[in-house]
Amino acid sequence: MKYKNPVISGFHPDPSICKVGENFFLVTSSFEYFPGIPIFQSKNLVNWEQIGHVLTREAQLPLKREHSFIPSQGIFAPTIRYHKGRFYVITTNITIRKTFYVWAEHPEGPWSDPIFIDGFRGYDPSLFFDDNDKVYITGASFPGAGPEGIFQAELDIDSGKMISESQFVWEGTGGSSPEGPHLYKINDWYYLLVAEGGTEYGHMVTIARSRKPYGPFESNPHNPILSNRSTKLPIQATGHADLIQASDGTWWAVFLGFRPVKSTKVHHLGRETNLAAVEWSEEGWPVIGENGRAKVEHDAKLLLVNEPTPWLERDDFNCESLATVWNFYRNPLESSWSLTEQQGFLTLYGQSCTLNDLESPTFVGRRQQHFNCEVSTLMEFSPTEEGEEAGLTVFMNENYHYDIAKMIQKGQTIILFRCRVGSLWKVVKEILYDEPSVVLKIKATDTSFTFSYATPTGEEKVIGSGETSLLSTQIAGGFTGLYFGLYATGNGKCSTAPAHFDYFQYVPGQE
């Protein structure tokens, strides 16, 4: 039987995995989206179900921007581990430049308040629980905080205090940005798995081993053990892996990779979670995938692969809480959104800030997970004050997004299509529209977005289009992927008119 990569599509980078009983649990980076760190569960490594988020409270995940020079802040590269009845997730919040971990007895939570690790000057932290109950924290050094590479210290897991000095343990094989380390003990060897080459086309996975946790580490003479660099394979930038052993004794790796648009060589869905088998050489070195290459289709071996869960195309907002696929951009203002103000609707109140600002806008979004898809929403919105606006956006970050919206301008209500691409900002088209309700739609292909609107019973009218490449990571920067978002703003003041969204529909097309 075969399975296809990615096993979790759309913006789900830096996967980390653990196994408890017959269940696998996986977390990924979330950067500035809230709640943070989506957590997934699977019984076969291929079919994954999101069961929640690890960081669900602002006290766990403050995202207020202090600096704007980094395009993606927030949560970088979490690691999940299980030890003596507790799940642990360790990560770095780049916004506040602090490393911490949280713990829970159940993967769906509740998760503890953060336990900060003072004196840890790095990112991409990982935990390793040794046989003798010693706990190690392994991480990559911040630029300027010492030699570039991987360092390690012993940790008191109850208090979060480092109980040894940090030791530099490996510089990698010479690739740029050695990061994303994980330490394992397998057959009396300590293996140190590392990502190198930067999280772009040169990305790769390398490994070293030692008889002691602090080394000296011997580099695998056949490194890298995974990389799709210098190939034309559909998945590129493969790296940042984590190893796991299944109950049948087979070994597997989860890792990130992106799918570039063939005609442009850029990508906009973000880095995704992929899976490949791991084989061990007679000398005791692992190789990931097919001789170190990751493909779209792989042999499932003994994994009992199921048919994927049917895609839920429509959210009618009939629950008292948002489905796990939804996120806010940074910490939301509680009064800016509601699922109970008007039953069966998501209600948004625009704040003074817009999608262009470094504050937290009124925004509820979900990842784009398919190149070809259609999304639509029925919005009831009757703005009364100049500048009040609500609509639907394709959003990469505050400097790169396309919006279709209804707003009041010079006393008239209009439907507009607007592009924000770096410093270039343009309202492409405006149409007078005085109906209280409107259906907004986006049709996506691998190279373009087409925006249209209609009355609830009327004919659909196209208002504009935009290239996917202009919202790609290579142009927009940062480490995320695209979101489809419902939003509202007062454009400089708080809105008094609510925007009610009756549903959100996401229909995947053929890939």
Radius of gyration: 23 Å
The assembly state of the depicted protein chains is single chain
Intertermini distance: 20 Å
CATH-assigned homologous superfamily of the largest domain: Glycosyl hydrolase domain, family 43
Count of individual helical segments: 1
Main beta-sheet annotation: 8 strands, antiparallel
Helix content: under 10%
Please report which band the strand proportion falls in: under 5%, 5-15%, 15-25%, 25-35%, 35-45% or over 45%: over 45%
Structural class: mainly beta
CATH architecture of the largest domain: 5 Propeller
Any low-confidence stretches, pLDDT <50, length ≥5? none
Shape: globular
CATH level-1 class of the largest domain: Mainly Beta
- The number of domains is 2
Any idea of the CATH topology of the largest domain? Tachylectin-2, Chain A
Mean pLDDT: 96
Q: How many strands in all?
A: 38
How would you characterize this protein structure?
It holds the Pfam family Glyco_hydro_43. The protein has 511 residues and is an all-beta fold. The chain has one helix spanning 473-476; strands at residues 2-4, 16-20, 23-27, 33-34, 36-42, 49-55, 75-83, 86-93, 98-104, 115-116, 122-129, 135-141, 150-155, 167-170, 179-186, 189-196, 204-210, 218-219, 236-245, 251-258, 272-280, 286-288, 297-299, 314-315, 328-329, 337-338, 346-348, 362-367, 373-381, 389-397, 400-409, 412-421, 424-432, 437-444, 448-454, 461-467, 483-489, 499-508. The strands form nine sheets. Strands 24, 26, 27, 29, 34, 35, 36 and 38 form an eight-stranded antiparallel beta sheet that branches. Strands 28-37-30-31-32-33 form a six-stranded antiparallel beta sheet, with no helix packed on it. The chain has two domains: 2-299, Tachylectin-2, Chain A (5 Propeller), CATH 2.115.10; 314-508, Jelly Rolls. The protein is built from one helix and 38 strands. 1% of the residues lie in helices and 47% in strands.
